[in-house]
Amino acid sequence: MPSPASAEWFADLYAGAAYTPKSDITLVVSLPSGPADHTFHDVKWDTSPTFGGRLGYWFESAPWLGIGLDVFYFNANIPTQTVSTTILGVTAPATLRAIDVSTTVAALDFALRYPLQVDQGFPKGRIQPYVTAGPAVFWTRAKNKENTELTTEAATDSATGYKVGAGLSWLFSQHAAVFAEFRYTHVHTEPVLNSALSSLRVPLQFDLDTQHVVAGVSYRF
C-alpha cells in the first residue's frame, strides 16, 4: 500500500470556453446641451476561449478548507449587430458595430471540498467535489473596430467584481489530478473611449456576467 500523500499545496493549469449572455451596454455621451447617452439593449457577446492557472493551499488543520490565487484570461467581443437603442428617451433599431473586449482576472479563491473514495493511499479522497468563491480584480480592454463616431484607440479599466465556482477533481496518483469546473464571474466596468468627431471622452459602461466551463490538470506538492 503506498504511503499517504501529505502535500497540500496545489498548482492548476486549465482551459475552456467563456460565454456571456446578452446584456445592455451604454455609451455615455455628454454634450454641451446635456447628456445624450446611447443605450444598446440585449447586445450579443461572442463566446471565446478562456485559460489560466491557480496556485493554492488546503489547510492541514482543516483539510476541507483551502485558499488560492486564480489568474485567467478571456474575451467577450461584441460583433456587428442591429439592436434596439435608446437615445434621449426614444427607442429605435440601430446598428452597433464591432468592439473587441478582453479581460484579465486575478481572483482570490476561498474553497471548500468534500472527500470521496477515501483510503490509506488517498486520505483526503481520490474524488473531491469542491466549491469556490471570492473577490476578483478585472482588467478590461476595449477597442472599437468599426464604429465611425469613435476612434480605434484602445481603452482600459480596472474594477472589482467576484467569482464563484464548483468543480470535481479526480486524483489518478498521489500528486496529480484532473478536474472540471463551472464558474461564474461578474464585474461592472467602464473603459473610456475617444470620440472621432470631437474631443469628447466616451465611457463605455457594461456589466460583464460570464459563464466559464474549464478543465485542466492539477499537481499536488
| Alpha-carbon distance between the two ends | 20 Å
| Low-pLDDT residue intervals, each spanning 5 or more residues | 1-7
- Under the CATH scheme, the architecture is Beta Barrel
Q: How many domain regions?
A: 1
Order of helices and strands: EEEEEEEEEEEEEEE
Q: Can you tell me about this structure?
A:
The chain has 221 residues and is an all-beta fold. The protein is built from no helices and 15 strands. It has an eight-stranded antiparallel barrel. A two-stranded antiparallel sheet has the order 3-4. Strand 6 and strand 7 form a beta hairpin.
Any descriptors?
221 residues, Porin, 15 strands, 0% helix, 8-stranded antiparallel barrel, elongated, mainly beta, disordered N terminus
